[in-house]
Amino acid sequence: MRAATTESDDSGTLRPDAGTRIETVEMHTGGEPVRIVTKGYPPIPGRTILEKRRHARAHLDAYRRLIMFEPRGHFDMYGVLPVEPDIAGADMAVLFIHNEGYSTMCGHATIALGRYALDQGLIKAGSDGTARLNLQCPCGLVEVSVAADGAARFRSVPAFAFALDREIDLPGKGRVKLDIGYGGAFYAFLSASTFGLDVRRSRTKDLVAAASAVTEAVKAQVQLHHPDDPDLAFLYGTILTDGGDGNTSPTANICVFAAEEVDRSPTGSGVTARLALMAARGQAAPGEWRRFESVTGSLFEGRVAETLTTGEFPAIRAEVAGRAFYTGSSVFTVEPGDPLGGGFLLK
Q1: Does domain 159-322 match CATH 3.40.50.620?
Q2: Active site annotation includes 139
């Protein structure tokens, strides 16, 4: 168990107190929560969105713990912090938060934000009945299209295969081959069958243990880099797949990211990275829709929408489609004298 304090200090770090009142809208995409902060979070300064991300991590992290951790959240909670855009043409900018920190891209939250922006009147439908949201994420500008019924799809930042058939030493397993793809965040990919597991049938805790072992090994043995910014060059997690390509039937995967958090959705940035890997192997031609299934049975559709180059990498832009739903709204406060009021995690 980790407990977050509610004490203040003199280092520029802000902490929640009895006057804190944070309001949120609650949604989910494929079962994965999306807690959108609408009021009460401290201002997040910074010239760029990556500076804002660094500031939030260094000086406002007690607020992340407050709304992500128990008793207000849980180990697998996920959230969104709207911030001021800093690039031309952006309608909205956000930071993504979870049990460990601040991710650079989140597809399931992006799908939810598209519907949320339309319902809040932040964007309007065009003559074709589709509303468009230019969403600035830490990884870059993501274009979101929202239908009148709330279904949404996004066009990703440039995604690429960082490594194909990379060998690592996995404790207790020996040499293992895997792929590393970037879809707004970096993931390691390999088939669950490598461990004698099945994504659809094996126990979640066994899949999590296998994926976590891979993540730790890749972090120790592979030096990542990104052509845009070093802040993007970190391994977010590992995705175990069923080895399929999603062409004639959905391909299942489980994404284990951050501090062993399990994505209930098919993982939008993970689908993006998988499509980049498929394109690099010649397994997915531009325009071909594929289907991706999560541990809850929820589905995303995805396709290679465009090919391009980013830095030294052949790249694609993926289009990923899904649906989000509302689950309610919340107001979070802190009662004086509550020893657990700052948040804790149990696993």
Answers
A1: no
A2: no
Q: Are 118 and 329 in contact (CB under 8 A)?
A: no
- Which ranges of 137-184 would DSSP assign to H, the alpha helix? none
The CATH architecture of the domain made up of 2-151+326-345 is: Roll (3.10)
Give one DSSP letter per residue of 270-314, joined into a string: HHHHHHHHHHHTT---TT--EEEE-TTS-EEEEEEEEEEEETTEE
Cβ(326)–Cβ(29) below 8 Å: no
Catalytic residue among 106, 137, 139, 255: 106
Are residues 59 and 13 in contact, defined by beta-carbon separation less than 8 angstroms? yes
Which string of b and e fits 31-66 if b means at least 16 CB within 10 Å? bbbbbbbeebbeebeeeebbebbebbeebbbbbbbb
Instruction: Note down pLDDT in tens along the chain; length 347 residues.
Output: 333 333 444 567 999 999 999 999 999 999 999 999 999 999 999 999 999 999 999 999 999 999 999 999 999 999 999 999 999 999 999 999 999 999 999 999 999 999 999 999 999 999 999 999 999 999 999 999 999 999 999 999 999 999 999 999 999 999 999 999 999 999 999 999 999 999 999 999 999 999 999 999 999 999 999 999 999 999 999 999 999 999 999 999 999 999 999 999 999 999 999 999 999 999 999 999 999 999 999 999 999 999 999 999 999 999 999 999 999 999 999 999 999 999 999 98
User: Do 154 and 110 touch, CB atoms closer than 8 A?
Assistant: yes
Residue 346: C-alpha distances to residues 2, 32, 71, 231, 264 (Å): 8, 19, 10, 29, 19
Residues spanned by CATH 3.10.310.10 within the chain? 2-151+326-345, 159-322
pTM of the prediction? 0.96
